[in-house]
Write a structure and sequence with these properties.
S-adenosyl-L-methionine; seven-stranded mixed β-sheet; Rossmann fold; S-adenosylmethionine-dependent methyltransferase activity; 2 domains; Alpha-Beta Plaits; 28% helix; alpha/beta; elongated; 346 residues
Length: 346
């Protein structure tokens, strides 16, 4: 079996399938997507995985939580011995790490216990067979076993430089008791997912300035203040009172679609609930006018034609920004019917 195995948010399989198909076609590669709505994963088959993987880099994919090169599909596994057929099917090479997973869906949650137990059994078997390296080497692929049923699994591998580092592609973040709202997890995940370690160190430093458009009750403002950033929080609604105790927050009761900063800021963040094209146009205005250097913002997607709307909004933003930008977008684990966009100068 050749192709890719990608995980996604349940219910967004059609969007991921459309994205993979369009990007592969643009790269001149054949292939077709296979999926079921609600399954939490998409297979893209028909083209060699070694060709598809570099043509569809993970950092450019929007609706994929994880991107893997598909090795095999095993059906009718005997619960008394699942290890032997897996070892017999795997190619003769070594992997640096093993993830045993299941789709992130309510239907697949009962497989969590099997995944844990099977990983504990398969890991020593792979080591004994000389198929699992003891060294942490990013050049060695990572092996994935994804159970979609007790007797049905996919075998795949990840280039660790071109894949998510987390099981299921999901960073596990905990809600801090001081966070004003759960939306804080969105910005925390965006910073962790869309910025690399060097960028986080360089671009999120104490003393920097930011605006949070549509800030109330203050989840995204709170995340920025934890980096020592001075935030102008723009919203006609109230903020959580303890935010102002930091001395880093200025709350202005104003409309995020009309307020203009008196001078250029390091950051602008925005999680306003509004039509995505209107938000994209407003975000472009901020860059065109030179009001911010970089931004993270969310685009709320419609119920239908979500991939088409995503493309349209990102194209509109890039065209109207008036300057060359590096743009990354991802549907994060803590997002719902939305995507999160990072924009920076090239």
């Amino acid at each position: 079996m050749t192709g890719l195995l990608c995980y996604c948010r349940p219910g967004f399989e059609p969007e991921l399938a459309a994205e993979l198909g369009e990007r592969a076609a643009r790269a001149g590669l054949p292939g077709h997507a296979r999926t079921e709505r609600g399954s939490g994963y998409v297979r893209f088959l028909g083209a060699d995985g070694d060709m598809l993987a570099p043509a569809l880099p993970f950092h450019e994919l929007i609706f994929a939580r994880q991107k893997l090169r598909l090795l095999a599909e095993l059906r009718d596994l005997d619960p008394r011995d699942r290890i032997a057929p897996i070892l017999a099917t795997l190619p003769e090479r070594r992997w640096g790490e093993l993830f045993v997973e299941h789709p992130d869906t309510d239907q697949a949650k009962p497989l969590a216990g099997l995944a844990r137990a099977f990983g504990n059994a398969l890991r020593p078997a792979l080591r004994k067979a000389g198929r699992l390296s003891e060294r942490d080497n990013p050049r060695i692929p990572r092996l994935h076993v994804c159970f979609v049923a007790g007797n049905h699994a996919f075998l795949a591998e990840a280039d660790t430089r071109d894949a998510s580092p987390w099981p299921l592609g999901v960073p596990r973040l905990r809600m801090h008791p001081d966070a004003p709202s759960r939306s804080a997890l969105k910005l925390e995940e965006a910073i962790l997912t869309l910025l690399d370690a060097d960028q986080r160190e360089r671009l999120l430093r104490p003393g920097m300035t930011a605006a949070d458009l549509g800030a109330a009750p203050g989840g995204w403002t709170w995340v920025l203040t934890r980096h020592g950033i001075h935030v102008t929080a723009i919203d006609n609604g109230p903020l959580r009172p303890h935010l102002l105790d930091s001395g880093l927050v200025t709350h202005l009761r104003a409309d995020g679609f009309h307020w203009k900063p008196p001078k250029a800021l390091d950051w602008m963040v925005c999680d306003m609930v509004e039509q995505p094209r209107r938000v994209a146009a407003r975000m472009a205005e901020w860059f065109r006018e030179g009001w911010c250097r970089q931004a993270i913002f969310n685009l709320k997607l419609p119920m239908k034609k979500r991939w088409e709307e995503t493309r349209l909004c990102l194209d509109l933003f890039a065209e109207q920004a008036g300057r060359p930008l590096a743009i990354r977008a991802r549907q994060l684990y803590h997002d719902r019917e939305e995507i999160t966009v990072l924009a920076q100068p090239r």
